[in-house]
Structure formats: structure tokens, C-alpha cells
Write a structure and sequence with these properties.
Length: 435
């Protein structure tokens, strides 16, 4: 779709809904005290900032966020970050799971969450409902997929991305015809014969703009557009999930099309994918570019001072605002807001999420009297392959490394998931600890 076509597209008739996700068990312990969309990202953002920013950059200003687990910090972030003027009609609003006279249950799936909030959505004047995930890293101009949706006269459009065979088993895989209409949808195909039958024909690569020569499959990105009347019709049942139930069932009865996306996309579903996506931000040419101001990523303004570096050696790292880094060595790491790093400390492949506040002098003295470290990283400490969650207190002469340990461990001081050590939010690692 051309730029002129995007500009002429009427985005005022679109309502956007971001799915806040379930308990986020695969991201535990990062989701122990917060909803999955509220997990910090790239030093200063939250996961939910990605889909909201994509909406704003696409001219979509009416956004609902559906959530139900540990939503306090998410509510606070949304209320402080996204405010539109009274005359634009725009909003970013959270709809938490609620009990009603007819239903006292939690959201049972993506479709169930939309179904239970349909009464709120239908109070708005819209023709198309855009449904997004709250835990993915990508940059997309939704006017492109909306344009194709309108041009094809689709009832439903599903955003898809070409993936290699090794990734196809864990995703919903589509099969399309020459017109990009979806004729088959298999959720997480494990059977080799089924998988073989779903691969994308190489003769279609050129028409879809695919330059990769590998065997590819079209995977659902969890991004859907529904016509208003269609979503009402398809949700008039108790089927809980879009990917498993609603979309496969609609293929036979409705016009369901695929929009093929070619850019970077990462589903932040596990500790390993979260860790790798964050560390990639510190690369010279990261796959996701936060410096692209043609479509900026928005977040909460904190009005923090610039970071202060006191003789540190920093190699391929992202340092957020409000930090004080003393004579430390930091390599291939992400340093979050308000981080304090002591002298002689070495950080390598570390996601340091920083702090929610600066600790007062009185608090530092009281903790020192109790032989507890201050918030931040102490002196002469070595940390590698680790995630240090917010407000953690790491003492002096501490060593934190997953080397020689099992892939998954639960310990009173720390967790290990996917071979990565995690110090939980508000965690305390005493002086001299060896992990």
C-alpha cells in the first residue's frame, strides 16, 4: 500500500485492543509481582509500550488494554504515560477482568477476554477491531494491514510472518492460496507429515516479497482484524481462544486473509527470548532499532538527570538516564534507569533493570547498620549472564554466574531459568555471596 493510500485510509473507524496476557508463567519470576506487559524492556520501556506506540504511529488513538494478573504497576504506567487531549477523542484505557451478575470467571483465553468486554467495545463507533498481543517486539504500520483488509473485503485478516521449520512447531501455521486467502490453519503442528504439507511454495515467494531461500512457513503473529459484525457473530459462543478455536472455525464460513509481514518480530514468551532480545539492543546494528524516529517508541516521562559515569569502561552497552556508574567495567549489557554500580565491579551480558526510586541517605545508613547493601550493585562484584530486577540490593564482593549450575533452579536468593540467573524484584544478595 502506498504512502498516499495510508494517508487516505480512515483510521478513525478502528478500535484497537491489546491482550494483556495470562499469568506469564514462562517469564516468572519477572512476572511474580507485575503483569507480563509491564515487564521492563531495553532499560527504560515496558513491553506494552511496543504495541501502544505502533498504534499511535499508525494514527490509531483509541486503545483498550485487557489485563487480569498483577495489574497495579501496569495501571500506574499507562495512567502516567499515555494522555491525549480532550478534543482528539483518543485514549489508552485498561479493562481489568471483572465479575458481573452473569459471569464471575477470569478470562479463559484471548477470545473469551474480548467477548467479556464486547459490551464496552460496542459502545464505540467503529468498523474494524484490531486485536494485538502485549508481549511482542516489532514495529508495524497498521495502516498497511488495514489497507489490505479493506481492499480484499476480508471479514478477518491475520498478520503472518515467514518462519523456518524449527520455529513452526511452536506457532500457529497458515496455508494460503494465490489471493492470500487462508485455506488452512494448524495450531502448533507437531506431526512431521502435517508440517510438510504446510510449507510455503517457493513459487509464491516473489509475489509475497520474500527473498529468503529457505523452506518457510507462514506463522500467525497473534494480530487480527475483524469486521465489527463478524466479531459479534463469531464470539456468540463459549469458545475461548482466537488461535485455537475462532480463526480455524471461521476459515470455512468467512473470508479470512493473510497479511504477510517481512520485518523483525520477536515473541517475548520465555526468559531466554526476553534476555536475548534485550541484549540485542546493545549491538551496533540491533535487529530492533529504538533510534528510528520515523516511528518512535513512547513511554513514561521520568524527568531524571543525565547519567553520570565516573571512570567506567563501557563496551557495547545501553545506559539509561539517571544512573551513577563508578569505576566499573560493563560489557554487552543493558543498564536501566536509576542504576547505581560500584567501583571495581564487572558486568557482562547483564540486564540491570535499575530502580523505581533513589534510596535516601537515611535508608542507606540504616541498611549499612544492618549489614545489608544499598539499592544497586556494590563494589568489586562480578555478574554475568543474569537479569537483576528492579530495586535489587547486590552487595560488595559478590559473584553471580550460572556456570556449572542446572538450567532451572529455585533458591531463596535467586532463580535460574533457561540458564540465566535472575535476582527478583526487591531481592537482597548479601555482601560476599557466591552464586
Amino acid at each position: 500500500m502506498s504512502l498516499t493510500g495510508r494517508q487516505s485510509l480512515n483510521t478513525s473507524n478502528v478500535l484497537s485492543v491489546i491482550m494483556g496476557g495470562g499469568q506469564g508463567t514462562r517469564l516468572f519470576p519477572l512476572t511474580k509481582e507485575r503483569a507480563k506487559p509491564a515487564v521492563p524492556l531495553a532499560g527504560k520501556y515496558r513491553l506494552v509500550d511496543i504495541p501502544i506506540s505502533n498504534c499511535i504511529n499508525s494514527g490509531l488513538r483509541r486503545v483498550y488494554l485487557l489485563t487480569q494478573f498483577n495489574s497495579a504497576s501496569l495501571h500506574r504506567h499507562i495512567s502516567q504515560a499515555y494522555k491525549f487531549d480532550h478534543f482528539s477523542g483518543g485514549f489508552v484505557e485498561i479493562l481489568a477482568a471483572e465479575q458481573t451478575a452473569t459471569d464471575t470467571s477470569w478470562y479463559q483465553g484471548t477470545a473469551d477476554a474480548v467477548r467479556k468486554n464486547l459490551i464496552h467495545f460496542l459502545n464505540h463507533d467503529f468498523e474494524h477491531l484490531l486485536i494485538l498481543s502485549g508481549d511482542q517486539l516489532y514495529r508495524m504500520d497498521f495502516r498497511e494491514i488495514l489497507g489490505q483488509h479493506c481492499e480484499t473485503g476480508a471479514d478477518i485478516t491475520v498478520a503472518t510472518i515467514p518462519v523456518p521449520r524449527q520455529d513452526a512447531e511452536s506457532l500457529g501455521i497458515m496455508q494460503i492460496d494465490a489471493e492470500r486467502r487462508i485455506i488452512r490453519f494448524v495450531e502448533k503442528p507437531k506431526d512431521a507429515a502435517v508440517l510438510d504439507s504446510l510449507h510455503l511454495e517457493k513459487s509464491a515467494y516473489a509475489n509475497l516479497g520474500i527473498t529468503d531461500e529457505r523452506e518457510l512457513y507462514l506463522a500467525s503473529m497473534g494480530i487480527y482484524i475483524f469486521k465489527r459484525d463478524v466479531v459479534r457473530q463469531l464470539l456468540d459462543n463459549d469458545r475461548p481462544d482466537f488461535g485455537k478455536h475462532i480463526i480455524p472455525g471461521a476459515i470455512e464460513s468467512h473470508k479470512v486473509f493473510s497479511y504477510v509481514f517481512q520485518g523483525y518480530w520477536e515473541d517475548i514468551g520465555t526468559i531466554r527470548s526476553f534476555f536475548d532480545a534485550n541484549l540485542d539492543v546493545s549491538s551496533e546494528l540491533p535487529r530492533f532499532n529504538f533510534f528510528d524516529m520515523s516511528a518512535p517508541i513512547f513511554s513514561r516521562l521520568r524527568f531524571l538527570p543525565a547519567s553520570k559515569i565516573n571512570g567506567a569502561q563501557i563496551d557495547h552497552a545501553v545506559v539509561s538516564e539517571g544512573c551513577i556508574i563508578n569505576q566499573a567495567r560493563i560489557k554487552r549489557s543493558v543498564v536501566g534507569v536509576r542504576s547505581i554500580v560500584g567501583c571495581g565491579t564487572r558486568l557482562e551480558r547483564v540486564i540491570l533493570m535499575g530502580g523505581d526510586y533513589y534510596e535516601s541517605f537515611e535508608s542507606i545508613q540504616a541498611n549499612e547498620a544492618a549489614n545489608r547493601p544499598r539499592i544497586g550493585i556494590g563494589s568489586n562484584t562480578r555478574i554475568e549472564n543474569a537479569i537483576i530486577d528492579k530495586n535489587a540490593r547486590i552487595g560488595d564482593n559478590v559473584v553471580i554466574s550460572p556456570v556449572g549450575k542446572p538450567e532451572n533452579v529455585d533458591h531463596p536468593l535467586y532463580y535460574i531459568r533457561d540458564g540465566i540467573v535472575i535476582i527478583p524484584k526487591n531481592g537482597i544478595v548479601p555482601h560476599g555471596t557466591l552464586i
